[in-house]
Design goal:
alpha/beta; 3 helices; single chain; five-stranded mixed β-sheet
Length: 92
């Protein structure tokens, strides 16, 4: 487990919504691999848009989401990290 604050310290962040003082068990960009306390990175690709899988990631246990577009419904217990480029954020 790592602290979310530490994981995102080098990421260019537009805004953070929610508590960023959380423990993260893994970083995932495939919602099917998310487990309890994962950080899910929603990446826009040619064939799939990871933003469409944010709800699934949360249902599987994600406690934090890195995204370029905020979902219409944001949950109070989830931290949303808004960035310009999710793929670049994942690389950091």
């Amino acid at each position: 487990m790592q602290e979310l604050n530490h994981l995102i310290e080098n990421v260019h962040i537009i805004n953070i919504f929610g508590n960023n003082d959380k423990l993260v068990s893994s970083i995932e960009y495939n919602s099917k691999n998310v487990k309890l306390n994962s950080l899910f990175v929603a990446i826009k690709g040619e064939n799939f848009d990871g933003h469409k899988f944010i709800s699934e990631a949360i249902d599987r246990g994600a406690n934090s989401i890195v995204c370029e577009d905020l979902p219409e419904t944001m949950l109070d217990n989830i931290t949303y990290i808004l960035v310009n480029n999710s793929r670049a954020a994942l690389a950091e």
